[in-house]
Amino acid sequence: LGTEPQITKQAQELIEQFMEKRNKGDLATDQLLNAIYLMTRESAPTGQEKEQLIEQLLKYLTSSEDG
């Protein structure tokens, strides 16, 4: 697990990404909380896997995509 400042930085980056996306479509706060929880865990994914998971977690609620 990272240090507290690292975790805070990761969470802040996710919050900023969430806020930007929320201005363009419907997102639920639970999506953000899930992303923060999963990305700040000891076994959090990295690299491309991390980016793909964040993309899935922060998918617009009105999206018709199945992926």
Characterise the protein shown here.
- The chain has 67 residues and is mainly alpha-helical.
- It has one domain (4-57).
- Helix content is 61%, strand content 0%.
- It has three helices and no strands.
- It has helices at 4-22, 29-39, 47-57.
- The termini are far apart.
- 10% of the residues are buried.
Give a quick summary of the entry:
This protein is mainly α.
Please tell me how large the radius of gyration is.
12 Å
Which stretches are low in confidence, meaning pLDDT under 50 for 5 or more residues running? none
Count of the domains: 1
Instruction: Estimate the mean pLDDT confidence.
Output: 90
Helix content class = 55-70%
Q: Give the biggest sheet.
A: none
**Shape annotation:** globular
> Strand share of the residues?
under 5%
Helical/strand content category: mainly alpha
- The topology string of helices and strands comes to HHH
Count of β-strands: 0
**What's the multimeric state?**
single chain
Number of helices: 3
Distance between the termini: 30 Å
Features:
mainly alpha
Blueprint (SSEs and pairs):
Layout: H1 4-22, H2 29-39, H3 47-57
